[in-house]
Design brief:
The complex is a heterodimer. Chain A has no helices and 11 strands. Chain A is mostly beta strands. The chains are: A mainly beta, B mainly beta.
């Protein structure tokens, strides 16, 4: 079955280190997204991509970067991890929208990142 | 995207219908109503969406008022596994950004 996976599921790192979170989907969806979820803030959009070589900044993009070299993967990189980036990170994907607006986003299981 | 208002929490007895309301009084004509839920620590799960007609699928029914200013998600026979935070989201079709508010925490009680 097609799916979306994230790795690692849990990560502990130190302030200042570079960290990369992986997201892989097998639905052949054009669109991919990264969110973070913190207590009291709900989900907030970090970066998104509409296709290969396309990336866009979301609401809370500072300190994060993404690259899209193929359809299946959108890795999220924290250039220099900070304690404020301790959070749960969710990846999502969707296909190109249709007339019925069925560009539903499907979410991965999440990565819990702790920055010490 | 239009803002939505949901009650912060609700309880429902197991086996009964759970009716989750959502107000979206500033919704515009090209905005869809989406519902997602998030079971503890898991990724959000798509439930259903609609534009102006009522919709039903294997998980739930979505009732949208005629003026489209509010909607209700109905879980016809709630089980303990339906305990989750439910998000009502209004967004323009084809626009990619979903804005998740605080949602409604539904507790299904035995």
């Amino acid at each position: 079955d097609a799916e979306i996976t994230q790795s690692p599921r849990h990560k502990i790192t130190e302030t200042g280190r570079q960290v990369t979170l992986a997201c892989h989907q097998t639905w052949n969806h054009n669109n991919m997204f990264w969110y973070r979820q913190d207590l009291g803030h709900g989900l907030r959009l970090i970066h998104y991509s509409y296709g290969v070589q396309d990336t866009n900044k979301g609401e809370v993009s500072d300190g994060y970067s993404v690259s899209r070299s193929n359809t299946e993967d959108l890795p999220l990189t924290l250039e220099s991890a900070a304690s404020s980036q301790t959070s749960v990170y969710f990846c999502a994907s969707s296909k190109v929208g249709t007339l019925r607006g069925t560009d539903t986003q499907y979410f991965g299981p999440g990565t819990r990142l702790t920055v010490l | 995207d239009a803002k939505t208002t949901q009650p912060p929490s609700m309880d429902c007895a197991e086996g009964r219908a759970a009716n989750l309301p959502c107000n979206h009084s500033t919704i515009s004509g090209n905005e869809y109503v989406y519902w997602y839920r998030q079971i503890h620590s898991q990724g959000p799960q798509y439930i259903i969406h609609g534009l102006k007609n009522n919709e039903t699928n294997e998980m739930a029914s979505l009732i949208i008022t005629e003026d489209r200013k509010s909607s209700t998600l109905i879980l016809p026979h709630a089980t303990l596994r339906d305990t989750a935070v439910y998000y009502c989201i209004v967004r323009v079709a084809f626009r990619q950004n979903f804005v998740f508010g605080p949602g409604t925490r539904l507790s299904v009680l035995p």
